[in-house]
């Protein structure tokens, strides 16, 4: 079987809700990433055989197959198709898996895996909040309700359940959140993200631009302190999680170009990384966010690897209890986890985060001269993707 190689990986800097990316239609924002991938590889755009794009809020401006719309908004020719993927927060990590599987099978040679989410323009939960009429309108079916009587699936509830299960106190979560900001600040000030970020013009509400380029993740709190984080109110009375220890609402897009050996020859480029292993796992949908823990253990077993053989980890910071519980269970070195900060500081653009995290991971492996990287993230419904890549 052929191998799957990543030959380019880019992302936009994250934008706050109503911030510097809010003027962009999500299809146009995603198109910026597609064009950047072509530019960085020097690829003939007509050679791209598919664009697989993750997006969670597939409603409004993100409806109607956002992947194909992004292609039509880009400089790619009409011959390039596109399909949209929803595996909740892992949507664009799943897009990477699908792209890798396509080139490994030999049915395609060059595929783009990407993701986008404008949480400003398509608010979280919009696709599942249609007005109920005659009992219609809920995403939770009667059969699901029968299987999980009285359960209202909630990531906020799952985060609190994880904090209690893994004996994580609010102080633990607050300290982790501060670390996320501190690492993101250090990475930004050192210019670490420059290689992966695509500069995007700031669009004003009327669609015009003022010459400003968005190049710095807008969610980073450069003045964050333990005291300021500790002053944020709890999300639930008697709970442990606050908005400061949860991922930030974010606008953003990211993408990776994935090829096999034949694709390498067609493009004449050197690979950045090889996809070493891919795993998917379903888990308890009530606690919901715990799936990265068993999924990582499952992936390592299938890959025949030990946790210490992995040099860098990207575990999405949907809520602080997730990476902390993951660390506690796997025994991974915390100094290898989210070394440039995570979603608590950098933002979590839902369907765009999988490609975003992998982009950061691949570049970090090169910058630090490391070999193996592992990415995982919790997903709505109690699932997790795990991807292990090898730097080349």
Automatic annotation (TrEMBL):
Work out whether the entry's keyword set contains Acyltransferase.
yes
Q: Which PROSITE patterns match?
A: THIOLASE_2
Q: What is the lineage of its organism?
A: Bacteria, Pseudomonadati, Pseudomonadota, Betaproteobacteria, Burkholderiales
- Superkingdom, taxonomy of origin: Bacteria
Thiolase N-terminal domain location is 5-261
Question: What family is reported?
Answer: Belongs to the thiolase-like superfamily. Thiolase family.
Reply yes or no: does the keyword Chaperone apply: no
| UniProt keyword annotations, A-Z | Acyltransferase, Transferase
Q: Which InterPro entries match?
A: Thiolase, Thiolase-like, Thiolase_C, Thiolase_CS, Thiolase_N
Domain Thiolase C-terminal: from-to ranges: 270-391
Task: Please name one Pfam family that this protein belongs to.
Answer: Thiolase_N
This one is known as Acetyl-CoA acetyltransferase
